[in-house]
Amino acid sequence: QAGSSLTDITTSAQPTAEGYYQIKGHKIFISGGDHSGAENFVHLTLARIDGAPAGVKGISLFVIPRLRPSADGLVYNDVQTAADFQKLGQRGYSTTHLIYGENEDCQGWLVGQPHHGLAYMFQMMNEARIGVGHSAAAVAMAAYLAAHQYAHERPQGRIPGNRDPLAAPVPIIRHADVQRMLLTQQVIIEGSLSLAAFCTRLSDLAHVATDETAKHEAWLLLEILTPVVKTYATEQGIRAVSLGLQVLGGYGFTMDFPLQQYYRDIRIMAIYEGTTGIQSLDLLGRKVLLENGRAFQLLIAEMHKTTEKAAENPDLQPFARVLEQEIQRLTEVTKALVEFAKAGQAERFTADATVYMEMAGLVIIGWQWLHLAGVAQQQGANGRFSPDFYGQVQRCLRFYFRYELPHAEAHARTLTEGEPMYV
Protein backbone atom coordinates (compact mmCIF):
# COMPACT_ATOMS: atom_id res chain seq x y z
CA GLN A 1 0.00 0.00 0.00
CA ALA A 2 1.09 3.57 -0.56
CA GLY A 3 -0.01 6.57 1.42
CA SER A 4 -0.64 10.00 -0.05
CA SER A 5 -0.44 13.57 1.20
CA LEU A 6 -3.20 15.59 2.81
CA THR A 7 -4.58 18.43 0.75
CA ASP A 8 -7.53 20.67 -0.08
CA ILE A 9 -10.75 20.20 1.87
CA THR A 10 -13.41 19.74 -0.79
CA THR A 11 -14.87 16.57 0.66
CA SER A 12 -17.94 15.76 2.75
CA ALA A 13 -18.75 12.71 4.87
CA GLN A 14 -22.04 11.15 5.96
CA PRO A 15 -22.09 8.58 8.80
CA THR A 16 -23.70 5.17 8.24
CA ALA A 17 -25.10 2.56 10.59
CA GLU A 18 -22.29 0.20 9.59
CA GLY A 19 -19.65 2.43 11.21
CA TYR A 20 -18.05 3.90 8.10
CA TYR A 21 -18.77 7.20 6.36
CA GLN A 22 -19.99 7.86 2.85
CA ILE A 23 -17.37 10.12 1.27
CA LYS A 24 -17.95 12.50 -1.60
CA GLY A 25 -15.70 15.18 -3.08
CA HIS A 26 -12.34 15.94 -4.66
CA LYS A 27 -8.72 15.75 -3.54
CA ILE A 28 -5.99 17.34 -5.66
CA PHE A 29 -2.20 17.40 -5.96
CA ILE A 30 -1.82 13.96 -4.38
CA SER A 31 1.80 12.91 -4.68
CA GLY A 32 1.99 9.24 -5.64
CA GLY A 33 -1.79 8.99 -5.37
CA ASP A 34 -2.07 6.38 -8.13
CA HIS A 35 0.47 4.50 -10.21
CA SER A 36 1.35 1.00 -11.41
CA GLY A 37 3.88 0.39 -8.63
CA ALA A 38 1.29 -0.64 -6.02
CA GLU A 39 -1.98 -2.51 -5.99
CA ASN A 40 -3.77 -0.40 -3.43
CA PHE A 41 -3.55 3.15 -2.09
CA VAL A 42 -4.76 4.30 1.30
CA HIS A 43 -5.48 8.02 1.47
CA LEU A 44 -5.58 10.18 4.58
CA THR A 45 -8.23 12.75 3.75
CA LEU A 46 -9.65 15.79 5.50
CA ALA A 47 -13.42 16.07 5.19
CA ARG A 48 -16.34 17.77 6.86
CA ILE A 49 -18.98 15.57 8.46
CA ASP A 50 -22.46 16.77 7.53
CA GLY A 51 -23.65 19.14 10.25
CA ALA A 52 -20.14 19.81 11.56
CA PRO A 53 -19.23 23.25 12.99
CA ALA A 54 -18.10 25.89 10.53
CA GLY A 55 -14.43 26.61 9.95
CA VAL A 56 -11.45 24.50 10.90
CA LYS A 57 -13.19 23.26 14.05
CA GLY A 58 -15.47 21.17 11.86
CA ILE A 59 -12.78 19.26 9.97
CA SER A 60 -12.27 15.53 10.53
CA LEU A 61 -9.68 13.04 9.27
CA PHE A 62 -10.53 9.84 7.40
CA VAL A 63 -8.78 6.77 6.03
CA ILE A 64 -10.03 6.10 2.48
CA PRO A 65 -8.58 3.15 0.53
CA ARG A 66 -8.82 2.86 -3.22
CA LEU A 67 -9.66 -0.82 -2.70
CA ARG A 68 -11.64 -1.60 0.47
CA PRO A 69 -11.87 -4.91 2.33
CA SER A 70 -14.98 -7.06 1.95
CA ALA A 71 -16.04 -10.64 2.54
CA ASP A 72 -14.90 -11.41 -1.01
CA GLY A 73 -11.52 -9.69 -0.65
CA LEU A 74 -10.57 -6.23 -1.86
CA VAL A 75 -13.22 -4.43 -3.91
CA TYR A 76 -13.24 -1.06 -5.68
CA ASN A 77 -14.05 1.79 -3.28
CA ASP A 78 -15.25 4.38 -5.81
CA VAL A 79 -11.99 6.36 -5.76
CA GLN A 80 -11.32 7.55 -9.30
CA THR A 81 -8.12 9.11 -10.65
CA ALA A 82 -9.40 11.96 -12.78
CA ALA A 83 -6.08 13.48 -13.84
CA ASP A 84 -2.30 13.39 -13.51
CA PHE A 85 -0.75 16.85 -13.12
CA GLN A 86 2.43 17.31 -15.15
CA LYS A 87 4.86 19.18 -12.92
CA LEU A 88 7.97 21.14 -13.80
CA GLY A 89 11.00 18.88 -13.87
CA GLN A 90 9.30 15.82 -12.42
CA ARG A 91 9.38 12.73 -14.63
CA GLY A 92 8.25 9.20 -13.83
CA TYR A 93 6.24 10.67 -10.98
CA SER A 94 2.49 10.95 -10.47
CA THR A 95 0.61 13.85 -8.92
CA THR A 96 -3.05 13.02 -9.08
CA HIS A 97 -6.51 14.52 -8.90
CA LEU A 98 -8.86 12.11 -7.11
CA ILE A 99 -12.66 12.00 -7.13
CA TYR A 100 -14.42 10.28 -4.24
CA GLY A 101 -17.93 8.86 -4.43
CA GLU A 102 -18.91 9.72 -7.97
CA ASN A 103 -21.04 6.56 -7.89
CA GLU A 104 -22.14 7.14 -4.27
CA ASP A 105 -20.09 4.16 -3.06
CA CYS A 106 -16.93 5.54 -1.42
CA GLN A 107 -16.42 4.41 2.16
CA GLY A 108 -14.10 6.08 4.67
CA TRP A 109 -13.22 5.41 8.29
CA LEU A 110 -12.85 8.15 10.89
CA VAL A 111 -9.42 8.66 12.48
CA GLY A 112 -9.66 9.60 16.16
CA GLN A 113 -12.38 11.99 17.29
CA PRO A 114 -14.68 13.94 14.98
CA HIS A 115 -13.71 17.57 14.26
CA HIS A 116 -10.05 17.09 15.32
CA GLY A 117 -8.73 16.43 11.82
CA LEU A 118 -6.57 19.53 11.49
CA ALA A 119 -4.74 18.81 14.76
CA TYR A 120 -4.13 15.22 13.65
CA MET A 121 -2.90 16.41 10.28
CA PHE A 122 -0.28 18.67 11.82
CA GLN A 123 1.21 15.76 13.75
CA MET A 124 2.36 14.52 10.36
CA MET A 125 2.70 17.89 8.63
CA ASN A 126 5.25 19.43 10.98
CA GLU A 127 7.75 16.60 10.57
CA ALA A 128 7.07 16.60 6.84
CA ARG A 129 7.99 20.30 6.74
CA ILE A 130 11.31 19.58 8.44
CA GLY A 131 11.82 16.78 5.91
CA VAL A 132 11.15 19.14 3.00
CA GLY A 133 13.72 21.58 4.37
CA HIS A 134 16.23 18.78 4.75
CA SER A 135 15.51 17.56 1.21
CA ALA A 136 15.98 21.04 -0.22
CA ALA A 137 19.34 21.35 1.53
CA ALA A 138 20.34 17.95 0.11
CA VAL A 139 19.45 18.97 -3.46
CA ALA A 140 21.29 22.27 -3.00
CA MET A 141 24.30 20.39 -1.66
CA ALA A 142 24.38 18.18 -4.74
CA ALA A 143 24.26 21.30 -6.92
CA TYR A 144 27.03 22.93 -4.89
CA LEU A 145 29.31 19.90 -5.21
CA ALA A 146 28.76 19.78 -8.97
CA ALA A 147 29.50 23.51 -9.28
CA HIS A 148 32.54 23.19 -7.02
CA GLN A 149 33.97 20.40 -9.17
CA TYR A 150 33.30 22.32 -12.38
CA ALA A 151 35.00 25.44 -10.98
CA HIS A 152 38.18 23.46 -10.37
CA GLU A 153 38.15 21.90 -13.84
CA ARG A 154 37.08 24.78 -16.08
CA PRO A 155 39.95 27.11 -17.17
CA GLN A 156 38.93 30.56 -18.28
CA GLY A 157 40.40 34.05 -18.09
CA ARG A 158 43.33 35.49 -16.17
CA ILE A 159 43.61 36.83 -12.65
CA PRO A 160 43.03 40.62 -12.64
CA GLY A 161 46.37 42.34 -12.71
CA ASN A 162 47.99 39.74 -14.97
CA ARG A 163 48.46 41.69 -18.21
CA ASP A 164 50.28 38.94 -20.09
CA PRO A 165 48.07 38.04 -23.11
CA LEU A 166 49.99 34.78 -23.49
CA ALA A 167 49.36 33.63 -19.92
CA ALA A 168 47.46 30.38 -19.63
CA PRO A 169 43.85 30.67 -18.40
CA VAL A 170 43.31 29.79 -14.75
CA PRO A 171 40.60 27.52 -13.29
CA ILE A 172 37.58 29.69 -12.61
CA ILE A 173 37.78 28.79 -8.90
CA ARG A 174 40.60 31.37 -8.82
CA HIS A 175 38.18 34.19 -9.68
CA ALA A 176 36.82 36.14 -6.70
CA ASP A 177 33.22 36.20 -7.87
CA VAL A 178 33.15 32.44 -8.38
CA GLN A 179 34.47 32.00 -4.84
CA ARG A 180 31.74 34.34 -3.61
CA MET A 181 29.04 32.27 -5.30
CA LEU A 182 30.42 28.99 -3.98
CA LEU A 183 30.76 30.34 -0.44
CA THR A 184 27.22 31.69 -0.57
CA GLN A 185 25.98 28.24 -1.51
CA GLN A 186 28.02 26.62 1.24
CA VAL A 187 26.83 28.88 4.06
CA ILE A 188 23.18 28.53 2.98
CA ILE A 189 23.34 24.75 2.70
CA GLU A 190 25.38 23.91 5.78
CA GLY A 191 23.43 26.42 7.86
CA SER A 192 20.18 24.79 6.68
CA LEU A 193 21.47 21.31 7.48
CA SER A 194 22.50 22.42 10.96
CA LEU A 195 19.07 23.87 11.67
CA ALA A 196 17.34 20.77 10.27
CA ALA A 197 19.45 18.55 12.54
CA PHE A 198 18.62 20.77 15.52
CA CYS A 199 14.89 20.52 14.73
CA THR A 200 15.12 16.75 14.34
CA ARG A 201 16.69 16.54 17.80
CA LEU A 202 13.90 18.73 19.20
CA SER A 203 11.35 16.40 17.61
CA ASP A 204 12.91 13.44 19.42
CA LEU A 205 12.99 15.31 22.73
CA ALA A 206 9.38 16.45 22.33
CA HIS A 207 8.41 12.76 22.13
CA VAL A 208 10.76 10.98 24.55
CA ALA A 209 12.19 13.47 27.07
CA THR A 210 11.51 12.21 30.60
CA ASP A 211 11.37 15.66 32.19
CA GLU A 212 7.98 17.15 31.38
CA THR A 213 9.22 20.75 31.37
CA ALA A 214 12.08 19.91 29.00
CA LYS A 215 9.67 17.94 26.83
CA HIS A 216 7.25 20.86 26.55
CA GLU A 217 10.01 23.38 25.88
CA ALA A 218 11.41 21.17 23.11
CA TRP A 219 7.93 21.10 21.58
CA LEU A 220 7.63 24.90 21.77
CA LEU A 221 11.02 25.42 20.14
CA LEU A 222 10.13 22.90 17.45
CA GLU A 223 6.86 24.70 16.77
CA ILE A 224 8.49 28.07 16.18
CA LEU A 225 11.49 26.72 14.22
CA THR A 226 9.60 24.35 11.89
CA PRO A 227 8.30 27.06 9.51
CA VAL A 228 11.75 28.66 9.52
CA VAL A 229 13.71 25.55 8.57
CA LYS A 230 11.19 24.71 5.87
CA THR A 231 11.25 28.23 4.40
CA TYR A 232 14.92 29.16 4.71
CA ALA A 233 16.18 25.85 3.34
CA THR A 234 13.82 25.91 0.36
CA GLU A 235 13.85 29.59 -0.62
CA GLN A 236 17.57 30.04 -0.02
CA GLY A 237 18.20 26.57 -1.43
CA ILE A 238 16.65 27.73 -4.70
CA ARG A 239 19.01 30.69 -4.61
CA ALA A 240 21.95 28.40 -3.91
CA VAL A 241 21.18 26.13 -6.87
CA SER A 242 20.69 29.20 -9.06
CA LEU A 243 24.18 30.35 -8.07
CA GLY A 244 25.46 26.91 -9.00
CA LEU A 245 23.98 27.38 -12.47
CA GLN A 246 25.70 30.75 -12.63
CA VAL A 247 29.08 29.17 -11.84
CA LEU A 248 28.70 26.93 -14.87
CA GLY A 249 27.47 29.73 -17.10
CA GLY A 250 25.80 28.52 -20.29
CA TYR A 251 26.75 24.92 -19.55
CA GLY A 252 24.53 25.04 -16.47
CA PHE A 253 21.47 25.02 -18.73
CA THR A 254 22.55 21.98 -20.71
CA MET A 255 21.75 18.33 -20.10
CA ASP A 256 25.48 17.62 -19.93
CA PHE A 257 25.51 18.73 -16.29
CA PRO A 258 23.01 18.01 -13.49
CA LEU A 259 22.46 21.62 -12.35
CA GLN A 260 19.51 22.18 -14.67
CA GLN A 261 17.68 19.21 -13.15
CA TYR A 262 18.50 20.22 -9.57
CA TYR A 263 17.07 23.67 -10.29
CA ARG A 264 13.78 22.17 -11.46
CA ASP A 265 13.74 19.67 -8.60
CA ILE A 266 14.18 22.21 -5.83
CA ARG A 267 11.73 24.82 -7.08
CA ILE A 268 8.64 22.99 -5.88
CA MET A 269 10.04 22.52 -2.39
CA ALA A 270 9.12 26.09 -1.46
CA ILE A 271 5.54 25.07 -2.31
CA TYR A 272 5.41 21.59 -0.73
CA GLU A 273 3.59 21.31 2.63
CA GLY A 274 2.51 24.94 2.58
CA THR A 275 3.87 27.82 0.51
CA THR A 276 6.33 30.38 1.84
CA GLY A 277 3.48 32.80 2.52
CA ILE A 278 1.65 30.16 4.56
CA GLN A 279 4.80 29.34 6.55
CA SER A 280 5.39 33.03 7.21
CA LEU A 281 1.84 33.57 8.46
CA ASP A 282 2.27 30.50 10.66
CA LEU A 283 5.51 31.87 12.13
CA LEU A 284 4.36 35.43 12.84
CA GLY A 285 0.61 34.95 13.20
CA ARG A 286 0.66 31.78 15.33
CA LYS A 287 4.05 30.64 16.57
CA VAL A 288 5.37 34.00 17.78
CA LEU A 289 2.17 34.34 19.83
CA LEU A 290 2.16 30.73 21.02
CA GLU A 291 1.53 30.51 24.77
CA ASN A 292 1.74 34.30 25.13
CA GLY A 293 5.10 34.44 23.36
CA ARG A 294 6.73 31.61 25.31
CA ALA A 295 8.04 29.85 22.18
CA PHE A 296 9.66 33.07 20.93
CA GLN A 297 11.18 33.75 24.35
CA LEU A 298 12.68 30.25 24.45
CA LEU A 299 14.19 30.75 21.00
CA ILE A 300 15.76 34.06 22.03
CA ALA A 301 17.10 32.41 25.20
CA GLU A 302 18.67 29.58 23.18
CA MET A 303 20.41 32.06 20.91
CA HIS A 304 21.65 34.03 23.92
CA LYS A 305 23.18 30.85 25.36
CA THR A 306 25.25 30.49 22.20
CA THR A 307 26.39 34.12 22.12
CA GLU A 308 27.30 34.08 25.82
CA LYS A 309 29.45 31.00 25.36
CA ALA A 310 31.04 32.40 22.18
CA ALA A 311 31.81 35.69 23.92
CA GLU A 312 34.29 33.80 26.14
CA ASN A 313 36.25 32.78 23.03
CA PRO A 314 38.58 35.44 21.56
CA ASP A 315 38.13 34.04 18.04
CA LEU A 316 34.34 34.14 18.25
CA GLN A 317 33.79 37.17 20.46
CA PRO A 318 33.35 39.70 17.60
CA PHE A 319 30.71 37.50 15.97
CA ALA A 320 28.91 36.97 19.27
CA ARG A 321 28.68 40.74 19.67
CA VAL A 322 27.23 41.21 16.18
CA LEU A 323 24.72 38.40 16.63
CA GLU A 324 23.59 39.85 19.97
CA GLN A 325 22.78 43.08 18.15
CA GLU A 326 20.73 41.20 15.55
CA ILE A 327 18.91 39.18 18.21
CA GLN A 328 18.01 42.42 19.96
CA ARG A 329 16.85 43.92 16.67
CA LEU A 330 14.67 40.86 15.96
CA THR A 331 13.21 41.11 19.47
CA GLU A 332 12.38 44.80 19.04
CA VAL A 333 10.79 44.26 15.62
CA THR A 334 8.74 41.38 16.99
CA LYS A 335 7.48 43.46 19.91
CA ALA A 336 6.54 46.30 17.57
CA LEU A 337 4.57 43.98 15.30
CA VAL A 338 2.84 42.20 18.20
CA GLU A 339 1.46 45.56 19.31
CA PHE A 340 -0.66 45.56 16.15
CA ALA A 341 -2.01 42.13 17.08
CA LYS A 342 -2.84 43.35 20.59
CA ALA A 343 -4.68 46.32 19.08
CA GLY A 344 -6.77 43.98 16.94
CA GLN A 345 -5.08 45.08 13.69
CA ALA A 346 -4.60 41.54 12.38
CA GLU A 347 -4.14 42.56 8.76
CA ARG A 348 -1.46 45.13 9.63
CA PHE A 349 0.22 42.62 11.95
CA THR A 350 0.72 39.95 9.29
CA ALA A 351 0.93 42.05 6.11
CA ASP A 352 4.71 41.65 5.87
CA ALA A 353 4.93 38.22 7.45
CA THR A 354 7.20 36.96 4.67
CA VAL A 355 9.64 39.83 5.24
CA TYR A 356 9.60 38.93 8.94
CA MET A 357 10.33 35.31 8.01
CA GLU A 358 13.32 36.40 5.91
CA MET A 359 14.70 38.46 8.79
CA ALA A 360 14.18 35.71 11.36
CA GLY A 361 15.77 33.13 9.05
CA LEU A 362 18.89 35.24 8.59
CA VAL A 363 19.35 35.69 12.35
CA ILE A 364 18.62 32.04 13.14
CA ILE A 365 21.08 30.74 10.55
CA GLY A 366 23.64 33.20 11.92
CA TRP A 367 23.04 31.59 15.30
CA GLN A 368 23.64 28.16 13.77
CA TRP A 369 26.93 29.28 12.22
CA LEU A 370 28.19 30.69 15.52
CA HIS A 371 27.25 27.42 17.19
CA LEU A 372 28.99 25.39 14.46
CA ALA A 373 32.16 27.43 14.82
CA GLY A 374 32.21 26.88 18.58
CA VAL A 375 31.72 23.15 18.26
CA ALA A 376 34.34 22.88 15.51
CA GLN A 377 36.90 24.69 17.63
CA GLN A 378 36.13 22.58 20.69
CA GLN A 379 36.29 19.31 18.77
CA GLY A 380 39.44 20.47 17.01
CA ALA A 381 41.08 21.00 20.41
CA ASN A 382 40.07 17.43 21.28
CA GLY A 383 41.74 16.15 18.12
CA ARG A 384 38.53 15.11 16.37
CA PHE A 385 38.72 17.81 13.69
CA SER A 386 41.78 19.04 11.86
CA PRO A 387 42.89 22.69 12.04
CA ASP A 388 42.05 22.96 8.34
CA PHE A 389 38.47 21.92 9.05
CA TYR A 390 38.07 24.52 11.79
CA GLY A 391 39.65 27.11 9.51
CA GLN A 392 37.05 26.38 6.84
CA VAL A 393 34.20 26.68 9.35
CA GLN A 394 35.68 29.95 10.58
CA ARG A 395 35.87 31.22 7.00
CA CYS A 396 32.21 30.38 6.44
CA LEU A 397 31.29 32.13 9.69
CA ARG A 398 33.12 35.28 8.60
CA PHE A 399 31.53 35.14 5.17
CA TYR A 400 27.98 34.68 6.50
CA PHE A 401 28.32 37.53 8.97
CA ARG A 402 29.72 39.87 6.31
CA TYR A 403 27.61 39.00 3.25
CA GLU A 404 24.35 37.47 4.52
CA LEU A 405 23.48 38.59 8.05
CA PRO A 406 23.58 42.35 7.27
CA HIS A 407 20.42 41.92 5.18
CA ALA A 408 18.48 41.41 8.43
CA GLU A 409 18.82 45.12 9.23
CA ALA A 410 17.26 46.08 5.91
CA HIS A 411 14.31 43.77 6.59
CA ALA A 412 13.90 45.36 10.04
CA ARG A 413 13.60 48.79 8.42
CA THR A 414 11.00 47.51 5.99
CA LEU A 415 8.98 46.05 8.85
CA THR A 416 9.04 49.08 11.13
CA GLU A 417 9.35 52.21 8.96
CA GLY A 418 6.03 53.26 7.51
CA GLU A 419 2.94 51.35 6.48
CA PRO A 420 2.95 48.24 4.30
CA MET A 421 2.33 48.96 0.63
CA TYR A 422 -0.68 46.66 0.33
CA VAL A 423 -2.93 47.17 3.37
Provide a brief overview of the structure:
This protein is an alpha+beta fold. The chain is built from 11 helices and 10 strands. The strands form 2 sheets. It has a 5-stranded mixed barrel with strand order 2-3-10-5-4. Strands 6-7 form a two-stranded antiparallel ribbon.
Produce the secondary structure layout.
Blueprint lengths: L1 E3 L5 E6 L5 E11 L9 E9 L9 E7 L1 E4 L2 E4 L2 E6 L10 E6 L6 E4 L6 H37 L22 H33 L3 H37 L10 H9 L8 H12 L6 H17 L6 H26 L3 H5 L2 H29 L5 H18 L2 H10 L7
Helix pairs in contact: 1-2, 1-3, 1-4, 2-3, 2-9, 2-10, 3-4, 3-5, 3-6, 3-9, 5-9, 6-7, 6-9, 7-9, 7-11, 9-10, 9-11
Overview of this structure, please?
- This protein is of the alpha+beta class and 423 residues long.
- Helix content is 55%, strand content 14%.
- The protein contains 11 helices and 10 strands.
SSE order, as H and E? EEEEEEEEEEHHHHHHHHHHH
Number of continuous helical runs: 11
**Low-confidence blocks of residues:** 1-6
Major β-sheet profile = 5 strands, mixed, barrel
Strand order of the largest sheet: 2-3-10-5-4
Mean pLDDT: 93
Nearest-angstrom radius of gyration?
Answer: 25 Å
Throw out a few tags for this protein.
two-stranded antiparallel sheet; 55% helix
